[in-house]
Amino acid sequence: DADVTxxxxxxxTKTGKRIMLECSxxxxxxxxxxxxxxxxxxxxxxxxxxxxxxxxxxxISDGYSVSRQAQAxxxxxxxxxxxxxxxxxxCATSDSGQPRAQYFGPGTRLLVL
Amino acid sequence: xxxxxxxxxxxxxxxxxxxxxxxxxxxSSTYLYWYKQEPGAGLQLLxxxxxxxxxxxxxxxxxxxxxxDKHLSLRIADTQTGxxxxxxxxERGDTGRRALTFGSGTRLQVQP
Lengths: 113, 112
Hints:
The structure holds 2 protein chains of 2 kinds.
Chain A: E1 4-7, E2 10-13, E3 19-25, E4 31-37, E5 43-51, E6 54-57, E7 64-70, E8 73-78, E9 87-94, E10 103-104, E11 108-112
Chain B: E1 4-6, E2 9-13, E3 18-24, E4 31-37, E5 43-50, E6 55-58, E7 61-66, E8 71-76, E9 85-92, E10 101-102, E11 106-111
């Protein structure tokens, strides 16, 4: 079984709808992250969480919110989806020790019409 | 802010060596990473190097770090068609930032 899973893998929604992307991990890591990937722009950090009570904004948090329901679960919500939120979304995890590499889920491809 | 830059595209022939380059601006970088992304998949950690090292070798992969010039490279020996993918360089600083900064990725195309 994959260590980091994301649901759904693909989602089509309409402008103005609220949607939630979910991430679960079995790696036992305390840190979790949400990124979005756009062609030619690499990965940009949306939110990150160091534990259930420690949630922080990344560089592009506007229009997004997150919830850390448990150490193993971190969900990303788009409160009112807009077309420029069409992207590939990745969840990642890391532990707090060195080298603190991040391990990624398979991604959710989101299309906002 | 911190920046990581990579060339967008590299094409090599099967069996040749590939060298993917990366430059970064954060002089406090502690670890630098290489990730591989195959079509339709997430990012897979290939290797990493600590900033006090010059080189790290792992089977067909060699990472070279020039900390003075803030230049990182990934060499893939005997490149295979299965190595075709996008390769991302990432760095983690020691400035209180808590996440990785990624380059925009280099697409490696391996010609048979």
